[in-house]
Task: structure prediction
Amino acid sequence: MVDGSRVPSSQGMHPGKAGATNQGVLSMLSKITRRGIVVAVGACMLAGVLGGCVNQQEYDRLVETNRSLSATNSDLQAQLDDCNRLVGTLRGQTGSASDTIVSLQQANDDLRRQLADVQAQYEQLESEMASMPLTRLDPVTDRALRDLAAKNPGLLSYDPDRGMLRFSSDLTFDSGSAVVRAEAAETLRALAGILNSAEAAPYDVRIVGHTDSQPISANTAKRHPTNMHLSVHRAIAVREELRKLGVSAARMEAAGWGEFRPAVPNAPDGNTPRNRRVEVFLVRGAGASAGAESPGTGSVPVDRARGTGGIEPIK
Result:
């Protein structure tokens, strides 16, 4: 007799196992059919026996066999009904799983389209930003700075998109020094004249020093312990020269990056002249705010010189 408790249950069955389960059900149906044939054959045998003469013992045995086969047939029929119901349930689950897969695929396609749209917008914005000047100086100031750079090609270069003048440190300072050379002082005098013009008045002046990655010598370290110190000290020195030439101290900021923002990769030994520079940026700002000093007087607080850690300006 087949144990009905071992019929597979549809509860908790994963949709992905539906195919395997359906195969098992079909196998079970085949077995049930074969056993049903056995029952039918037994019934036929009993009928044949009853048609002839048999002893009582044989008759009783056949009656018991018939009773047992009838019970087995009832059990098999019940199991067959259960299997049919299970097949129906599994077919429903398979259909539901297929619908879910289709929905997920559609959602995935929608997300891919949205991602492609966002990526296209990002690339468009990035392209626009790349072609947009970071600082738009007024035409008069822009022309004046272009002319100044053209007159000092070895010492000075000008980047109009960034509103930035770049001084070569090798021509502005002696090696390991933060004292402005006389040749550079004349160029700074011309720059101060531009900065003091009415057109340039709205701009703040950001002065940033840079070095290469050469180690500081023992002699230089007495005045400038690290490349960071040297870069800041040189920025402060340029600021002080401009202040003496009449540019308001309240408009100017001094900072230094040391060797950490190279214009080009440093050479293996660190000796890279293009990275030794002082950059002067003109940026839109508040200018001389309330309480600001008149041009040529006073000095900005030391903590505005980024990274100085309380270092005094070079005298």
Q: What stands out?
A: The beta strands are 156-159, 164-168, 203-210, 252-256, 277-284. Residues 146 and 196 are 16 Å apart (CA to CA). The longest strand covers residues 203-210.
